[in-house]
Amino acid sequence: MFFGVIMKIENIKIKKFRSYDHLELSFSPEVNILYGKNGTGKTNLVESLYFLALTKSFRLNNDKFLIKKNEIAATVEGNILTDVSTNYKITINEEGKRIEIDKTKVKKMSEYISRINVILFNPLDSKVINDAPAVRRRLLNVEISQLYKEYLVYLSNYDKVLKQRNTYLKVVYTNGNASKDYLNILTDKLIEYGIKIAEYRNNFINSINEYITDIYKNIFLKGELRLRYSSDFKNKSADEIREKFRELYIKEISNGKTVIGIQHDDIDFLLDGNKLKDWGSVGQIKNSIISFKLAEIIVFEKIKHEFPILILDDLFSELDKEKIENILKMLNHNVQTFITTTDIDNVNTSLFNDYKIFNVTEDGIKEA
Ligand SMILES: Nc1ncnc2c1ncn2[C@@H]1O[C@H](COP(=O)(O)OP(=O)(O)O)[C@@H](O)[C@H]1O
Ligand SMILES: [Mg+2]
Predict the structure, then answer these.
(1) Ligand 1, atom 13, residue with closest C-alpha
(2) 272-296 pLDDT, tens per residue?
(3) Burial class (CB within 10 angstroms; exposed 0-12, middle 13-18, buried 19+) of 340
(4) How far is the CA of 41 from the centre of ligand 1 (A)?
(5) Can you tell me which atom of ligand 1 is nearest the CA of 67?
(6) Which CATH architecture has domain 132-302?
(7) Could you tell me if the CB of 16 is within 6 A of ligand 1?
(8) pLDDT at 2 exceeding the cut of 90
């Protein structure tokens, strides 16, 4: 049996990040429980871990709010143990971000993002199922770009070509003499990158489907959960898509816009064949998302041969004791896990070999 590389955050040093002025913590390699009242900074702390891994937050698009109020720069630094211990450091100020690995500046973001794997559950994730398709595509992008560093490159190439193509379609509309050859070149490029991206997404969803049904059943005890990926480019050859673009030529010119492609991709969460979007209860939706995240851990291990770090931010509010227990029992001892909760009694620590408990208050974080 193969065991993946185990990844652990050994310690973290935070300066002027969110509500924190200065904070240093060292963690258990297995389970870390952060408990405290609402608004004390639990999410801020796990956000800093996520930020260190992915260079961005999960709850906003503008980095400047990550900097402590009235300050000009924030730093998050941590040592992460895989085969060796590596120092990662991100500094943000008004001008942008500086990213360092072992004190050396990193130039390529795609190289960095695929290094530290983090899987996070946050209450906002429950919205993913009901939100606009773009939100689900972003979920796919975040996860797949951690698995394959080339993925981000394909994605940014695709976006570039899509923009060029949309602009050029408008040119063709206003100028009947515009070169069709150039449009064909853009179409071919779009198809080339798009097919690749659809393939990554399709494979990823297929892999998740291998595990998610059983995981969901372990928590909820009934119901068949599956994901369905839909895409104009899924399982299509370049020739088939080219033909489709030929059929759509008039429509595209009059719309001034590319009408098919992976920019319309979506995933459906199906429970017993019904879309959770239309039918799901709050509990079913929450358990579906957590099942998705737990399935991802297995997929990460299979594909990258690495165990990611798991963050469960406020997962247990609104869940009954039995389901919490079912989830905790499924946690893999090789996966370093961070749990935030307002109620320490939610977490049955006798299930873990090693753990640390941190008490979070307005005055800071103390190991309990
Ligand atoms: N940039 C910031 N500077 C200072 N305080 C901040 C900043 N961003 C958020 N906060 C504060 O952090 C607190 C919320 O912390 P959070 O981690 O979400 O709490 P919880 O423990 O409920 O997860 C709020 O009081 C908020 O005002
Ligand atoms: Mg919180």
Answers:
(1) 39
(2) 999 999 889 988 999 999 999 999 9
(3) buried
(4) 5
(5) 1
(6) Up-down Bundle (1.20)
(7) no
(8) no
